[in-house]
């Protein structure tokens, strides 16, 4: 296998994607020594935008074959860094659901910047009221996914992405491929819980109640949590969180899915699609609290979540 | 004509920041600031969410310490909902807290901090990183990667998801621990404990002594400290206890989580999205590195300073060595690296204790049926980067109406700024600077592990 140059950046991000990269495991050392030639990656390397003594005027990231960007786009500096990455990298990977669909931080799209800064800098119970900071990169009007700003070549969603998929994408690129895509399957396709397809489960239960299962028995002997009445976003969520061919991770903790891999297909409409899934097991989704906060929790970019009123 | 050096991004830290250093006509430092450049707004967008969902939203504040946000949030939600945990539910949460600390500290010491000490602060940036460490000591590097990975996977196997966890729930924990899981985790933690004891000895004997001169000057200034202690004996506590806020002379107030607003205020500055917490009782915040007012620090050095003792025996031996050399409180910023490893030993020992506790495999782990209600709760835990405060109010549907968060690194905003200013003024003279010096200024930030 060849050695490729890689540049990595994080924007409106939490660093979970970068920790997921480290979680590829023991092959990390080999990859770092033999295969990946990082030219820019702030989390582990000290390459600077404005020269090593901070005197240049233009932001500069070295050229690389592969560019990896995690996080969504929320301020003007993010836009500048993202455009520089696109310009300097032959292939751009959107890593993690913030980059592909907005992720959790795109929940802010239900509110506006004014409401945000009003609480943070004025109304918070510990804060001496002040004006919102001005000598910082201005916020954009919303939280955006990467492909709303630049072209993206490869999507590796997940919050965080499972290391299996990160490794698979990296190995594909090392073999000279220029494409990589995760399977278009749903979390339910990978979930071993028992489905009886009986209707009439009653009201949707919140996680204030515990599901029924025998902790001494494996997951494939537990009844589907959606059928037990718990909201589970498995039907409309892209599969893969457990890694290749393994059960969904939240389910392994006996917890329902909240959609952290984003929609199954690029053009899917989870808010609408999920209504059908809920109706098929006998629920009326219109009656549930905070419907948008459940159903679009991880995919609020692309205009999916909007400020109401 | 003066000029500005723009160090961006600050690297080998866990967040997003830049440093600006303003030089005057003679090339000396007029001012230096740390800018935090992003605001995501968790406090705003958890409003409206059912409170039991919040612990699996706010974990996204930090991908390195998602467990601490998850747990502090669950504790705040427990209070809002007025629920009591079965003892085993609480112990499983505390075990996860201990297990999640271990990879975090290994990562920081070996991957982020060590390049400055092992490769050297003046080395070229292309080798002053973890890849350089691999080149310098491949066997140790392989071991480090393996142990960090192992500790992450132990927690993932038990709790389903290690990054952005879901296993703690209001009222307890989502799944019990089986005897097989207990045995496997215990075996793993014993191996990790050996490695962590090796690590602190290695650092204490072979890494730190070479840099003791730098430790005594870089980024140093007197400050207060915050941390959590066990109420009955003042031992260092990471999961649940009382807060202790110590002034620079070592006198302190001790208080319950719910009283935090009486002690801590937050100040706003135009040049950073991050606010500046300060100790209200000490007067208005004054960001002067020679005479700071209101400034206290959080994270491991702070906890080591405020505690009367460690909670476990091997960690106590390490604290004895540390205090004999540096006293209490110690204001030397680079000692964060040392304090971090003392805590690492306690985490391993405490995890081992919990895994040897017969109650850990009990099946009663959760209040199974909680009614939504209006309430208020302040949930705190110690995160690797400092005291984590989650304060929520809920309406009668159990949906969040107010969320105020002060996270670990936020407490350290004022101190990091003072360390940057102090280091810049001490290092840059008469227009002489180079990338090694500028990296030393970043080292003063890196100590806080922001």
Number of helices of chain B: 14
Helix content of chain A: 25-40%
- Average residue pLDDT of chain A: 93
Globular, elongated, flat, extended or rod-shaped: what is the shape of chain A? globular
Q: Gist?
A:
The complex is a heterodimer of chains A (309) and B (450). By secondary structure, chain A is of the alpha/beta class.
Protein model, in words:
The complex is a heterodimer of chains A (309) and B (450). Chain A has helices at residues 16-22, 27-35, 76-88, 97-101, 113-123, 163-174, 187-190, 249-252, 270-280, 291-295, and strands at 4-10, 36-40, 64-70, 73-75, 89-95, 139-144, 154-156. Chain A folds into two domains: 4-107 and 135-174, Rossmann fold (3-Layer(aba) Sandwich), CATH 3.40.50; 183-309, no CATH class. In chain A, the strands form two sheets. Chain A has a five-stranded parallel sheet, with helices on both faces. The radius of gyration of chain A is 21 Å and the shape is globular. The longest helix of chain A has 13 residues, at 76-88. Chain A has 309 residues and is of the alpha/beta class. The model of chain A has no long low-confidence stretch (mean pLDDT 93). In chain B, a hairpin with a 5-residue loop joins strand 7 and strand 8 (252-255). Chain B contains 14 helices and 14 strands. Chain B has helices at 42-45, 66-81, 87-119, 130-136, 138-159, 179-207, 212-217, 260-263, 300-306, 313-326, 336-355, 408-411, 413-427, 435-446; strands at 3-7, 17-23, 29-36, 168-169, 172-173, 224-229, 242-246, 252-255, 264-267, 276-279, 296-297, 375-383, 386-394, 400-406. By secondary structure, chain B is α+β, with helices and mostly antiparallel strands. Helix content of chain B is 43%, strand content 16%. The radius of gyration of chain B is 22 Å and the shape is globular. In chain B, helix 3 (87-119) packs across helix 4 (130-136), helix 3 packs parallel to helix 6 (179-207) and helix 4 (130-136) packs across helix 5 (138-159). The model of chain B has no long low-confidence stretch (mean pLDDT 96). The interface between A and B is large, with 88 and 109 residues.
